[in-house]
Structures are given as structure tokens and as C-alpha cells.
Amino acid sequence: MTFKRGSLPRKILLGILPLFVVFVTLSVIFQNHFQEQEMINEASVAATTYASIIRESMVSMMVNDLRVDSTFLKRVRNLAQFDTVDVVINDLHLRPEILKGLEPLHRSHSSVPRASSDQTVRDVLDSGENIFVKEGMSFRAVVPFQATEVCQRCHAVRLGYVLGAADLRVSLDRVAHASAENWKRSAIIFVLFSLAAGTFAMIIFSKFVTKPVDKLVRATTDISRDIFGERGDSGQVGGSLLNGHRSLDELGYLGLRFDQMRATIRQKVMEIDEARTKLSARNVELERALDQLRTAQEEIVRNERLAVAGRMTAQLSHEINNPIHNIQSLLESSLKKVEKTEDVYELISIAQEEVNRMASLTKQMLDFSRGNSVQEERQTFDVGALLNEIVVIFRDRLAGRQIGMAVSIADALPPIHGSRDRLKQVFLNLIINAADSITPPGSITLGCRRTGDVIAVRVTDTGCGINPDHLGKIFDAFFTTKKEVSGVGLGLFVSYGIVQQHGGDIHASSEPGRGTTFTVELPIARNSEAHSTG
């Protein structure tokens, strides 16, 4: 629990220190092992060398004096390099001619040990191989003396026969002492190095790790306090900074704060997404409401224009119509009093035609002014039959102008309720406008279909089309795009008013240079309306 509550530098130090101790310990152990092995190898080489010298000396003495000097054996036993040196002999197999000197030979060999029951010595004498073995705290080397050609002068043996061996022993206390000294030096070096490395590591760690981590901890604490409303001293690390999380170090504390902030951010993102969805829905509703408001505003403006234009045209028509009727009466009376052969008759006829044209224009203006006030007799009728009548009227006339007329009327259309004459005026006006926009040859298509609860009548031409800038103004009063003065720009305006009076709608779509389509939508007659006129 104490380690868990420790600071990050303490945890790192306590984590690295055991690893360093293990590393140093293993280094000392391996060093001592290698040192001991090296000393054993050196002892093996030295034992082999001394054994070779002993053998050569003994061979020389045997050849020259047929005996081994006891003084030489004493010197061999007192070699400073080894603790003990023993020379053992095997069966010598002396030749018969040498037996005459047997007594001196026996005296010379009295101080040389015979082959004992030591198994290691027996193995060397039997195998002729060197044996190096560690026995406790001592090192033992048994090196055989093998017969050479010189030895065969005195011994009836084969070459390589083991005549004896040198048994050398050396204590390993020096190795143990060196190992202990090595342990002491390693301990001193370890302590000094640990102090230096620890001090250096703490300085580096404090500068490049602890301080940046502390700054990050304080920053996360400030952010958490702003988000969660926590209170605490952001200047202390490991104390009140942890604010109830004292079992965590700096990294654990950072992880906790990051998890809290991640959860909060996720929640905020979800709230933002939800708000964005609601805002998008509200925007759609606002756009729909704005469209409806714009449509209603345009409708109000159009109706106001219609009312103003109606009042104005009614007053003008009334004021102009009376003088026109008087002029018509005077011209008719004048024509009756003048012969047709007279020149004045032609002039009076031209004047009468112009006055009649003016009367027609005033009548059109008067019909426009009465559009909102006069209630014509309404009836339930088949709009398809009405369109067929119009086609019969216009087909031959348009054919003479190289304008074809196609009809596409659906079967079994439900009836509509309204003024047959007024709606006929609308369709006639649309067909006339279509014909005026066509540069022969061309065609006009008349279509009629049911769409939901309305009957949709479409008049499509292949004329010049309508400029997009003018498309929104074609239903305004006194607006016209015709080059020749053939009206006062009230045709579509009056048609729009008639369709609105019938609870329908009229709109246009056009592509300049390719033609225009006018669509009139009229509601289907209700059952009560059909029965009332049936």
C-alpha cells in the first residue's frame, strides 16, 4: 500500500534499484566464476609443465645412474607453486640385464611411492590421460609418465606405457580470497555508482519528467475543476491535488482525469449532436414557415394589386365607356347617311373600327374589375369536354398558321364545379398566348390528368419561352412581353384571378428557346356540389 501511494519518481527509483542490484550481483558471480576457471586453467598448464620437467629429470637420472636421486624428490615435494607434489610409479618391467644393479635400484626407489589404491591415480595409470579435478577447496592434477624409446633401454615395455605419474595439488583459498576481495570492491563501486547515478537520474528525471508531469497534472486539475466544479489546490502534487484519490500517483491521476474528461466530452458531443438535430429540424420548420409566409405575402400583394387595379380599371372603364358608346352611335348614324361609294364612308368605317377596338379594350378592363365582385352562375361540368370544344374551335385556325395541336385527355375524369364560361376564357387565353409565342412551324399540346384531388390541365407550346427574370411577373397586372400592342397586359392577371376564385392554382415553367408549360389545377367537385347542380 505504501508503494502504491508513492509518487512517480519514488516508484521508478524503487523499480530500477532491484534490477540494478541483480545486475551487479550476477556480474560479480560471473566474474568470480570466470576468474576461478582461469586460475584452474593456469594451474592445469603449470601442472602439465612441471610434470614434464619431473619426467625428463627422472629419465635422465635413470639413464645415467640407474637410480633417482632422493634429494631431487625432496626438492620436487617442496615446489612453491603447489601445496603437495607426489610421484607414483607403476610396474617398471626392468630388463634382465639391468637386474645386476638391482640392489642400488631398490635403494633408489625406496623413497618413491608405489601405485596406491587411489582410484584417480589408477585411472591415470590405466588410461594414460591427464586428469584435472577440483576437490573441495583444492585443485588436483594427475599427469602420467609415458614410456619413450629412451625408457625402453631399461624397461621391457611398449611405447606409451605408463611408468608412473605426478600427483600435484594446489589450494583454491587464493581464489576464494580474491573472490571476497572482488565482492568488497564491487560493493564499494556499487554504492558509489548508485549514489552518483541516483543523484544524476533524480536531477534529469526532475527536470525532464517530474516538472512537465506536474504541469500537466495542474492543467488537468484546472480543467476538471472548471468542468466538474471540483475544489483543490492545483499547486500541490500528491496531496490535496488528488482530491480523494491519494492512492494514485501522477500518471494514475492523469489517467483518471483523462477518463473523466473523455466521458464528459462524449456526453457533450452527444448533447451537441442532439442539439444540432433539433436545430436542423427547427431550421426545416423555419424554412417551411418562411416559404409559406413568402407565398402568403406574395398572395396578399397580388390580391392588393388586383383590388387596386380593379378599382382603377372600373373607374376608367366607366368614364371612358360612355363617350365611346356616344361616338359609336354617332358613327353608326353617319354611316347610314353616307353612301358607300363616297370617300368619307371609308374614313367613317375606319374610325368606327378603331372605336370598336377601344370598346373591346374597355370591356376587357371592365371584365377584369368585375372579376372579384360578380358571381357567375356555377355548375358541375366535365373539363375534358370543355377542352375538346376549344380544340375544335382553334385547330383549323392554328393549322393555317402552321401550328399543330395535340390533345391528351385522360378517360373518366371526375367533374369540377365552377363557371364554365370563365374557365373557358382562361384556357382560350392560354392557347392564344401560346400561339403568339410560336414562330411557325410549331405545336401546342393540351393535356388533362387527375392528380390527387385536383384536375391538372397543362398547355405546352414550342415557342420562344419566357425569360427567367420575367417568370415571376407574368401574373402581375399590366405586365406584357409582346412586342405588338394587342392588349393591356391583363390576360394572365385575369386568368390568375379566375383560377383563384375557383380554389385552384396556376403556375408556369419555361426554358428560353424551347417553350413554356402552363399548369392549371382545379379541385374536383364535392358530392354536395354535384348533387346541387344535378
**Category from helices, strands and their pairing:** alpha+beta
How far apart, in Å, are the first and last alpha carbons? 100 Å
Q: Percent range for helical residues?
A: 55-70%
How would you sum up the global shape?
A: rod-shaped
Note the main sheet: 5 strands, mixed
User: Helix tally?
Assistant: 12
Furnish the topology, listing elements before pairings:
Layout: H1 2-5, H2 8-65, H3 70-77, E1 84-89, H4 102-108, H5 119-127, E2 131-135, E3 138-146, E4 162-171, H6 173-228, H7 250-337, H8 343-369, E5 379-381, H9 383-399, E6 403-409, E7 416-418, H10 420-436, E8 442-451, E9 454-461, H11 491-501, E10 505-511, E11 515-523, H12 527-533
Helix pairs in contact: 2-6, 6-7, 7-8, 9-10, 10-11
Features:
534 residues; alpha+beta; Heat Shock Protein 90; five-stranded mixed sheet; four-stranded antiparallel sheet; 11 strands; rod-shaped
Would you kindly provide a written description of the structure presented here, covering whatever features stand out?
By secondary structure, the protein is α+β, with helices and mostly antiparallel strands. Among the domains are: 2-178; 377-533, Heat Shock Protein 90 (2-Layer Sandwich). It is 58% helix and 14% strand. The strands form 3 sheets. Strands 6-8-9-11-10 form a 5-stranded mixed β-sheet, covered by helices on one side. Strands 1-4-3-2 form a 4-stranded antiparallel β-sheet, sandwiched between helices. A two-stranded antiparallel ribbon has the order 5-7. The protein is rod-shaped. Mean pLDDT is 76; it is low at 102-112 and 232-244.
